[in-house]
Amino acid sequence: MLDIVASTTDHLTADQILERVQAGTPEVHRATVYRTLDTLTRIGVIEHTHLGHGPAVYHLVHDRHHHLVCVSCALVVDIDSALFNELEARVHEEYGFHMNPGHFAVVGLCADCAEHEHPARSHSHG
Q1: CATH architecture assigned to 1-63
Q2: CB-based contact 1:37 (threshold 8 Å)
Q3: The model's pTM
Q4: Which homologous superfamily does the CATH classification assign to the domain defined by 65-126?
Q5: Higher pLDDT among residues 34 and 82, named by residue
């Protein structure tokens, strides 16, 4: 399973990982894949992110990044986790709260969809 997660840039759900595992080893049961994903998440090897209303997706912890998801066209953009460093520090300093910004995606509109829905505003961001 680690090879599957590590060898792709796709955002794979548990069911997609199961399909890929069973393509090579059909006798592996769904429960085994789910338990293994839970264990790998618990020990900090992989993490999952919710990209919206669908199932969570998995990636290696050493490839930590955050996600932007367009609510109009469903485009998923990976962004560097360092972008949230200042926000995390400020939230902790002001509220004593420890954020986990990678657990959920940031949703909004991609540049193309924003151009179609709000043409005047999209030009102000470059």
Answers
A1: Orthogonal Bundle (1.10)
A2: yes
A3: 0.74
A4: Ferric-uptake regulator, C-terminal dimerisarion domain (3.30.1490.190)
A5: 34
